Amino acid sequence: MIADDHAMVREGLRSFLSLSGDLETVGAAADGREAVALTHELRPDIVLMDLLMPVLDGISAIAVIRRELPSVEVVALSGYLEPQLIADALHAGAVGYLLKDTDAEELHRAVRAAAAGQVQLSPAVAARLVRDVHVPTTPPQLTRREEEVLTLLARGRANGQIARELHIAPQTVKTHVSNILQKLNAESRTQAALYAMRVGLVPVHAAAPS
Q: How far apart are CA 27 and CA 20, in angstroms?
C-alpha cells in the first residue's frame, strides 16, 4: 500500500511497482489518517509511507500501524535526508528509510526485503545515520557467534537466512538477536545494524541486501 499526499507521487510509485511481476499495489492513501484506516481494511504486507502529510503525519501513522497491526511492515519514503526525521521514523517502527529518488530496481528490492523483516536503508541514509551512532567507551562483549549474527543482520539477512548460512536453528538465531539488542541497548534490528556499520563489522554500502 502507498501513502503520499501527492497524487503524482502515488501514481509514480504504483507504476514503478507494476514493473515487477510479484508485487501488487492494493491501495493508496492521501494522508496519515487514511493510511491507518486503509491498512486496517486491506491488511497489506508493506506500507510505503511518506512522512510529511496532512491530517496525521507519516511518523505518527507509522507508530499507530506498528502498534495496532504489528504484522504490517512500514518503509518510510521521503525526499528529506534530515537525521531527526530519519531517527523519528525508525523509532516509530519503520523497517527502512528510502529517499524518493530511489530507482525502480532499488524500490522493488526494498519492498521484498521489508516483507522479510530485513533492514533496508538508502546508502545515503545509512551513511548519515552511522555518523551519529554512539559507540560506548567500553564496547559490549559480544560472543563470536553473536558477532557473526550481527554481521549478517547488518547485511540485510532475515533470521531464516542467517540460520541457513550459519547452519543453526532459526530459534537460536532469534535468541542471539535478542541478546545482541540487549547488549547494545538497541531498540531494533536497524539500530543494531547501524552499530555494526559504525564499528566496521560491515561497510555502509552493505546494509542493503544484494
A: 17
User: At CA 132, angle to CA 80 and CA 70, rounded to 5?
Assistant: 65
**Structure confidence by residue, pLDDT tens digits, 19-46:** 888 889 999 999 999 999 999 999 999 9
Question: Residues 207, 78, 59, CA angle at the centre, nearest 5°?
Answer: 95
| CB atoms near residue 46 (< 10 Å) | 22
* Host H or E run for residue 199: none
- Locus of grid cell 503524482: 8
pLDDT of residue 92: 87
> CB-hemisphere CA count at 13 Å for 2?
24
Q: Minimal CA–CA distance to 4: which of 52, 60, 69?
A: 52
Asked if 13 and 4 touch (Cβ cutoff 8 Å), the reply is yes
Cell of 204: 555502509
At residue 46, what is the residue type? I
